[in-house]
Amino acid sequence: MTHTAEMVREVVDIAASLDEVFDALTDPRELAVWLGDETPDITDGWTPEPNAGSSWKSPAIAPNGVRGHVEGEYLVVARPHRIETTWRASWEGDAPSRVRYDLEPVEVDGVLGTRVTVTHTMVAAAHARTAGRVDWRAPLGRLALLLNARVTL
Fold first, then answer.
1. pLDDT tens-digit profile of 102-115?
2. Which residue from 121, 141, 107 is spatially nearest to 36, judged by alpha carbons?
3. Cα–Cα 20 to 30 A to 27, which of 18, 66, 101, 116?
4. What is the bridge-based pairing of β-strands 55-61 and 67-78?
5. Using an 8 Å Cβ cutoff, are 141 and 151 in contact?
6. Percent helix, strand, coil in the chain (nearest 5)?
7. Cα distance between residue 22 and residue 133, in whole Å
8. 3-class DSSP state for residue 29?
9. What is the pLDDT of residues 41-70, one digit of tens each?
């Protein structure tokens, strides 16, 4: 059986270094905050440093405002330029998908910053269950705010 993949891509420029952005994408507390949980309770599911094959889990707020979670396994960890992970969000019925973060240096308001390109790929069946609710604009906006930056979507 062949599955067609559906893809969502968002780009944001953040006035923060590659390392700062990379850390915010992989640190359990920072990840939970930009995924929408203002008071994260991180107790398990994390290794000290992200490595290919290690698992992660984070509390998060669904696009409709309901508390939930996101979890996955790191597939690629190439500090500070790329992270690729599986992605299973409770509001997507824990349907498996992949998220890739590509980080590249870019000038943002006269300072060296980071362009973050998020590519979220899921099989068509999983995309149908999300009913078009996959939207990275709000989380990326929170990521930029977390890093005290100006966002350009």
1. 999 999 988 899 99
2. 141
3. 66
4. antiparallel
5. yes
6. 25, 40, 35
7. 25
8. helix
9. 655 555 557 899 999 988 888 888 888 899
* Cα separation values, 9 from 52, 68, 120, 153, Å: 22, 22, 6, 11
Residue 21, burial from CB neighbour count under 10 angstroms (0-12, 13-18, 19+): buried
Read off the pLDDT band of 16 (50, 70, 90): very high
Q: At what angle do helices 137-146 and 18-26 cross, to 10 degrees?
A: 120
Residue carrying the six token digits 């870019």: 106
* 83 alpha carbon, distance to own chain's centre: 9
Distances (CA, A) of 150 to 14, 31, 64: 6, 18, 25
